[in-house]
Amino acid sequence: MYLSGGIRVRTEGRYKQLYNDLKNFVFLDMHEIFFTCAAIGYRSGKRIPLGKSAEDRFWSDTITPHEFAMFYAMVAELEGMSCQSLMDAKSVIEVVEEYANAGMEILLEELLGEYVIETESGPVLDKASCDELPKIILAHIYDRSLSETN
Amino acid sequence: MIIQSIQLENFRQFRGKQQIEFDSHKNKNVIVIFGENGRGKTGIFRALMFCLYGEKKLSQDASVQESELYLVNTQELQEKSSQGIPVESCVTLDFLHEKQKYKLRRSLLGILEDGKVIQQSNGVKLTLWDDEGNSSTEKDPKIVSQYIENILDSALREYFLFDGEKIERLTRASTEQRREISNAIRKLLNIDTLEKVMGATERLKKYLNRELEKRATGERAEVMKLQRLNEEEIEGKKNGVESLRGELEFARLEKVDVDKKLEQIREIQDLLDKRNNLEERRSNIEEEKNDILRGMKERTGQTALLLLQSTANNVFNSIDRRKQAHEIPSDIRRDLIDRLLNEMQCICGRHIKQGSEAYARIIEWRNRIPDNATEDLTLNLWRDLSSARDRFESIEENAVQSLTKFGSLKNEQREVERELERLREKIGSSERADATKLDAHRLAIENKIGKIEYELTVTKQKLDALYDGKERLAARRKRIEDQEGIRDELTRRVELVEQSHDALLKIHNDFTAESRVSLGDDATRYFMDLLDDESRRNLKSICVEEDYSIQVHDRLDKPFLANISAGQRQIMSIAFIAALAKAACGGVELLEMPLFMDTPFGRLSHEHRKNLVQQVPHWCTQWILLATDTEFGEFEAKELAATGTWQSFYILHAEEDGSTNIHKTTVEDGLGYICQRG
Questions:
Q1: CB-CB contact of B627 with B674 (8 Å)
Q2: Which residues 272-311 of B have a C-beta within 8 angstroms of A?
Q3: B373 to chain A: nearest residue by CA?
Q4: A141 vs B316: CB contact, 8 Å cut-off?
Q5: CA quadruple B207, B209, B211, B216: dihedral, nearest 10
Q6: Looking at CA atoms only, how far is residue B377 from chain A in angstroms?
Q7: Cβ of B505 under 8 Å from any chain A Cβ?
Q8: Is A101 within 8 Å of A12 (Cβ atoms)?
Q9: What pLDDT band is residue B236 in, cutting at 50, 70 and 90?
Q10: Considering only CB atoms, which chain B residues are within 8 Å of A99?
Q11: What is the DSSP letter of B31?
Q12: CA-CA distance, B318 to B537, in Å (whole number)?
């Protein structure tokens, strides 16, 4: 495999609770949330470097081969299809982290706004209103993917 | 009393002055007052009661506060009160009684203040004419009241109105029925004073016995103490029996109520079944939705792969092109080229010179070939992207399937909710619990009834034993007193009081028994007049039992009340009220009082209805039939017209302002009106 794992994947500290909530209500694991955000950020051409409050969120070992392939594809595409740039796995993850950071911002802005409550430590899911959130997020991703293929 | 006319002015629904006339045709004595519900049919009887007795409430208004019962016409009140003018509401009654002419006018004033109706009495005036036509007037309410009481005792006034509720009340075997009949008999016999004296002798007897007990000694004292305890126990058991009867009746009423609900449920069983199915479907939908949501949770991460389809394709195609061009994996490994360059020798064995064209081509070739690690990574990436691309279609299909299924479940859920709402409206209140619960409740009531009946039997047996004990104790005491020759003053007084009390009790019992028999006989006669032929063959009599309940006996003289139909029960009630009215009129064959019947046809069959319109005109001097269109249709109108007793027809019309106008027509026009409506 092209990555041996052991890399700590980071997100903004303020998204800590939101990642936990989404993991409980919408996704199976952290890496899926991270991947979704990264894909949204990348498709929107938006990347936001992590700030000082960034925190380790999960280990890279949990990322699936398909997700990794997509991360590498993103970076390869960015680097003019040069695979040389993929040799440093940590650099690849760092790039993807920036996209994931932007992706979460977009997700909050476009979709999650009405399902979260803003707290001092960051946004958290409003549990009372998120019964159907898996469907809402799935539909959102699917709609975005249609505009992607079109 | 024969009413000649009744004038209403701003009374209840009747705005302005309106009048109903009663012509004095001896053989044409039926007046039909026809109107929809709420138009004021009962208001006519109410007007009569108000005029005669100043009464604002009828027995049917028991649950209504007098202050909430408005006699003054509200439309007039609203109009006049805006100008600060009070409204006078009055009823004037012209009538004959024992050939003397009377005119009675009673009024009240009403005003609307801050949205509240304030009503106050505005006097009464009675004018009488003697045989020579000279009139005298009386305005003192007390004296007027005495005059009217002499004509018809106010306690008996309501026996001349047969309303549906009263008829229904008497059809039920209940304490209420017994109480109503017992009260009626007591009122008819006017035995209040007798009962007061009986109460006084009872109290005196107890007092004297206590005094005697204090003075008594030895076995006599012991017996007297036992007598006192026996009396107390009898009193307690009597109360116990009464209370158990109340409980029993309550439980039976509850059972009737549950049966009615069950019947209603049976009527709506289809709707309930449908509701149950829909509720089950709603619950299944919720489960299915949750399953799909759980499935979605598993798919969301994968579905996000679709967001990068074009990137995956681009990179995959790029690598694939390089593969096709044999750039990767390279035909010759980079380490082999490095060895050639080190040895400055071509694969074919020729020597290569540095700076030659061949050397330059080998260098260029070497630069094009990636290092092993990069090449491995690129090939892995190609493979994984290929595998991911293979999955795009199925991921998309799954996502679409989940979303479509979820969407259709949501639509179905909305439809189910709408349908449930419609059913809820059709089914009605939430009190209609489901049949299973009601059945269980009914069973519990039945058990309770069984238990109370058992307790009642046991208590009655104990009571009988106590009465036996009472007799034995009395005999024992007498024996002691005879043996000891005790004949003091106090003992004699006790004996005297006991004898007086027993005598009064006998008079009371004889009097009421006689009255019960007489009421039963009259009710039976009316009952037979009204019954259809078949019922007449099967049923023999109505009688008032010792506990004042009504019983119907069949031709074998067996109690048969439990088996008669609802229609026969209604006929029984009408016959009984007529018997009460007859008794109230002093037992004369022809009731010299107007008989008001408010919607009496209810559950009656055609033949019973026919008998009613044929017979009642012969019972009384005036029959005022208050009817709605569902009660008095073509059939009843034609039957009544055929009797030749129908005098006039009044229609209560609704006016635009909500008040009622009394419109008089001839019988012919009335008949035409009814037939046209039918």
A1: no
A2: 292-294, 296-311
A3: A87
A4: no
A5: -170
A6: 5
A7: no
A8: yes
A9: very high
A10: none
A11: E
A12: 109
pLDDT at residue number A1: 46
Backbone CA torsion sign across B530, B535, B536, B541: negative
What are the domain boundaries of chain A? Answer: 8-144
CA B65 from chain center: how many Å? 20
Q: What is the pLDDT of residues B47-97, one digit of tens each?
A: 998 999 998 877 666 666 766 788 999 888 888 888 888 999 999 999 998
Record the tokens describing residue A35, joined without a space: 């991947």
Q: Which residues of A touch B292 (CB under 8 A)?
A: 135
Nearest CB to A2: which of B307, B381, B387? B381
Pick the range with the lowest mean pLDDT from A78-87, B395-404, B460-469: A78-87
pLDDT value for A150:
45
Q: The whole model's pTM is what?
A: 0.53
DSSP characters for B394-416?
HHHHHHHHHHHHHHHHHHHHHHH
pLDDT at position B146 is 92
Q: Which residues of B touch A69 (CB under 8 A)?
A: 312, 381, 384-385, 387-388
Burial B512-528 (b: 16+ CB within 10 A, else e): beebbebbbebbbbbbb
Identify the closest residue of chain A to B383 by CA–CA distance.
Answer: A69
User: What is chain B's percent helix, strand, coil content, to nearest 5?
Assistant: 65, 15, 20
Model confidence band, residue B338 (pLDDT cutoffs 50, 70, 90):
confident
Contact A137 B300 (CB under 8 A): yes
ipTM beyond cut 0.90: yes
Chain A residue closest in CA terms to B308:
A39
Note whether A77 contacts B297, CB cutoff 8 Å: no
Query: Is B385 in Cβ contact with A26 (below 8 Å)?
Result: no
What b/e readout covers B216-232, taking b as 16+ CB neighbours within 10 angstroms? beeebeebbebbeebbe
In chain B, where are the structural domains located?
Answer: 273-330+370-427
Mean pLDDT of B354-378: 77
Tell me if B298 and A29 make a contact (CB, 8 A cut-off).
no
Instruction: Find out whether the peptide bond into A123 is cis, omega within 30 degrees of 0.
Output: no
pLDDT of residue B572: 87
What's the pLDDT tens digit per position in B296-329? 988 899 999 999 999 999 999 999 998 888 777 7
Tens of pLDDT, residues B155-180: 777 777 777 666 666 666 666 667 77
User: What sections of B268-333 are H helices per DSSP?
Assistant: 269-303, 309-324
